[in-house]
Batch of 2 targets.
Target 1
Amino acid sequence: MLKIVVCVSGGGTNLQAILDAIDSGRITNTRVITVISNNPGAKALERAKNHGIPGICMSPRDYADRETFNEAFTAKLCELEPDLIVLAGFLVRIPEQMVAKFSGRIINIHPSLIPSFCGVGYYGLKVHEKALERGVKVTGATVHFVNEGMDEGPIIAQKAVAVEQDDTAEILQRRVMEQAEWILLPQAIDDIANGRITITDGHVRRVK
Ligand code: GRF
C-alpha cells in the first residue's frame, strides 16, 4: 500500500481528483495519510476533512525565517514517513534537504507542457496568461518528479490540450484541469503505486 501525503495551497481540485480516483478504484494500492496546506483557508483542507483525512497547516509565515520553516517542514514529512509526496497545486518551494531525503519520491503537477511556461514566476493563472500572450495553439499539463530545480525534474507524463480562439486564462485553466491534470495526476499515482513507473539515475521508465 503506497502511503501518500498531498501538499496543497488552494482549491484542491487535484486533491479531489485523487480522492475520487481512490474511491472509484482508478487508483489502487494507495492511501492518502495526510494533507498539508500552507494556507489555513485552503478549500483543499475542507476536502480532506470531508474524507476523514488529517489536514495540517504549515506556512513559512509562521516561522522566524525560511530556513526554520524548511527544517520544520522536512521534519514533519520525515515523521509522517510517506512513500510518495504529491504536490497538487502547492505554491511553496520544496526545501533542498527535503528533495535530498525524498529523492525520487516527490511528484508535482504543472499546468503546461514543460519546458514551456514553467520555472520561477509560472504558477496558477499566470501560466495560462503567458500561454495566451504567446499565442500558443496547444498547451497542456505535465507530471514530473521533483528535483532541486524549479519544474526541472524528470517528466513522468504529459497531455496536450487545445487553446481555443476566445479563451481567457480562467477558461483555459479550467480546460487544462478537466482534460489533463485531473486525469494525469491520478494515473501517475496509480502507475507508481503499482510499480509501472520507476525512476533510476534521473530517468523515468515505464514498465510494460
Ligand atoms: C493547478 O492548475 C495546478 O496544476 C497548479 O495550481 C492549480 C491548483 O489547483 N500548480 P487545485 O488547488 O488543485 O484546484
Note: The chain has six helices and nine strands.
Target 2
Amino acid sequence: MKILKIDHVGIAVNSIEDGKNFWAETLGLHFEGAETVAEQKVTTAFFPVGESEVELLESTSPDGPVAKFIEKKGQGFQHIAFRVENIEAALDELKERGVQLIDQKPRIGAGGAKIAFLHPKATGGVLVELCERS
Ligand code: ZN
C-alpha cells in the first residue's frame, strides 16, 4: 500500500461555529466551508494547512457516530486520515493481513473522496481513515 501523505486530522466538536473561533480566528486558518454528509450524520468543515487539512466534525443527530464519540471521550482529536494512491488495493492488502476494518469497501465522504475506516482495535486505539481523491 502506498500512503502519500496525511490528508487531514479529524477533530470532533459540539459546534463548528464555535470551533471556528479557535481554528479560523485565533490560528488564522482559512475556513473552506462546511458540508453535511447525511449518511454519516455529520457536518464537516475543512481548514487547509499546507499539504494537509484540519477537519472539524459536528454531529447532525444525537445517535450519530460523532455524537457517540463525544459522549464517550469528549470533544477533541477523533481520527487521522492518510491519502492513499488506491484505496481498494489498500483495503485488500489490509484484509489479507487480517486487520479489522470498519468499512470493508470504500464509501463516499466529504468532498467526494473515497474513504474507509480501520477499526481502532487494530491500530492501538487510533481511528485511522484511508482516503483517495481524484
Ligand atoms: Zn476524515
Note: The longest strand covers residues 3-12.
